[in-house]
TrEMBL record:
It is a multi-pass membrane protein. It comes from the Bacteria. It is found in: Cell inner membrane. InterPro entries: MFS_assoc_dom, MFS_dom, MFS_trans_sf. This is MFS transporter. It holds the Pfam family MFS_1_like. Residues 172-407 form the Major facilitator superfamily (MFS) profile domain. PROSITE patterns: MFS (PS50850). The chain crosses the membrane at residues 12-36, 48-67, 79-104, 110-127, 139-159, 165-184, 205-222, 242-262, 269-289, 295-318, 330-353, 359-378. Keywords: Cell inner membrane, Cell membrane, Membrane, Transmembrane, Transmembrane helix, Transport. One of its GO terms (cellular component) is plasma membrane. GO terms for molecular function: lactose binding; lactose:proton symporter activity.
């Protein structure tokens, strides 16, 4: 445990950084689609712009991971990422043509996505050095997400969605300032071990798990891409959209705490079936909702859907995968949950939303969630959980290695 006087401020600065960096996550997830809509882009175009992020994240995470390993620094890489975000946000603020925005947003995503696994890595290592629980740092990210969800909504309601990118510049600039006070670390981000993929793919239990996760992820990413567009169509202001994000982000915190304390008493597959069914019910209710206020109320189901799924899926994954394949398994999980599903749901979902409307769009999302639930249930009923004890670490610190892209 490092307890020297000069090291004591490290955790408060990391908490401040975690709090701030999630403001950019709020913007990308909730207000970028609204920004595109204000520019007059169609739903299929918005879906394509959303799908670019997961595709670019595959390349960006690998590139910056290699750079972090080669130059033995995380802080300097983080500074470069934040400067890149600021520059790309400035270019986006003056761009209106779809072709230009595609090029610029591609570069923005290149600097945006790797910031989260890097920040998790710094926080995990610092928490270990100070003999603290990782949750003491990571929970400030959830609090920051809730704060910025509401704060950004109020700001944009006053200055207009056309100035979304100026808010992005401001948040990234604050994060850049805080980064200057963070202690550098030479621990690289865990990378995918290509030699371990075959060993993982031979496990039928794990393949079934990834297939169900992918089905559920398509539904979730469809909702992520078009929730703010749906709220806007129902007459919600930026301020009200902020309240919807606040409701979902705050609701997940007590579930995380409860499952960390008592979740081990319940088998994983029944919990995953439960989460899938709650997701399905949530999407069905959104399809039938006739007001923005109703959708905000439905957002409270985020705790029982995403909250239960997140904690339980990482817990199951750490038990199914041996320690020496852990980085590979986490990388494959991220591809299934965020990258591949985001690419498919963005392109497919945009066309679906534009041609058939919100009602049918969310019914299709409900169908994918139900399919995942049936998959988890059939595996449990047919063979049982069959979770192999590996002595895996299922602490929040291990969970965080799945990356922020899971949100």
């Amino acid at each position: 445990m490092n307890s020297s006087p000069t090291s004591r401020p490290e955790l408060p600065w990391l908490r401040a950084f975690s709090f701030t960096i999630f403001g950019t996550s709020v913007l990308v997830a909730s207000y970028f689609p609204l920004f595109y809509a204000k520019l007059g882009f169609s739903n299929s175009q918005i879906g394509l712009l959303y799908a670019l992020g997961p595709m670019i994240s595959l390349i960006a995470n690998l590139f910056w991971s290699v750079a972090s390993d080669k130059y033995r620094t995380i802080k300097k890489i983080m500074i470069l990422l934040l400067i890149g975000q600021i520059i790309m946000s400035a270019l986006l603020s003056v761009s209106t043509q779809f072709s230009v925005i595609i090029a610029v947003i591609t570069m923005y995503y290149f600097f945006y996505y790797p910031a989260f696994p890097l920040s998790d890595t710094i926080a995990i290592n610092a928490a270990k050095r100070h003999n603290k629980h990782f949750l003491t740092v990571r929970i400030f990210g959830s609090i920051g997400y809730a704060f910025f969800a509401l704060f950004i909504g109020y700001v944009l309601s006053m200055i207009g969605s056309s100035r979304t990118m100026w808010v992005a510049i401001g948040i990234a600039a604050i994060a850049l300032f805080i980064t200057c006070f963070i202690k550098d670390q030479d621990s690289p981000v865990a990378k995918m071990d290509m030699s371990g993929i075959w060993g993982i793919l031979k496990q039928k239990e794990l393949l079934w798990f990834f297939g169900c996760v992918f089905s559920l992820a398509i539904a979730v990413r469809m909702n992520d891409a078009f929730l703010t567009v749906t709220l806007n169509q129902l007459g919600a202001s930026e301020k009200l959209i902020g309240w919807s994000q606040l409701a979902s982000s705050l609701s997940e915190i007590p579930i995380f705490i409860l499952l960390s304390l008592y979740g081990e008493k319940i088998k994983e597959l029944p919990l995953l079936v439960f989460a899938s069914l709650i997701f399905a019910a949530r999407f069905f209710l959104v399809s039938a909702a006739d007001s923005a206020g109703a959708i905000i109320a439905i957002q409270l189901m985020h705790s029982l859907s995403f909250g239960v799924f997140y904690v339980t899926s990482i817990r199951m994954l750490t038990r199914l995968i041996p320690d020496h394949y852990r980085a590979t398994g986490m990388a494959l999980f991220t591809i299934a949950w965020s990258s591949a599903s985001g690419l498919l749901s963005g392109t497919f979902g945009g066309i679906l939303f534009e041609r058939f409307g919100r009602h049918d769009f969310y019914l299709v999302a409900m169908g994918f969630a139900l399919l995942a639930g049936v998959g988890f249930a059939s595996r449990y009923l047919h063979r049982g959980p069959r979770l192999r004890a590996t002595g895996a670490d299922v602490s929040p610190a291990a969970n965080a290695k799945a990356g922020e892209e899971i949100r």
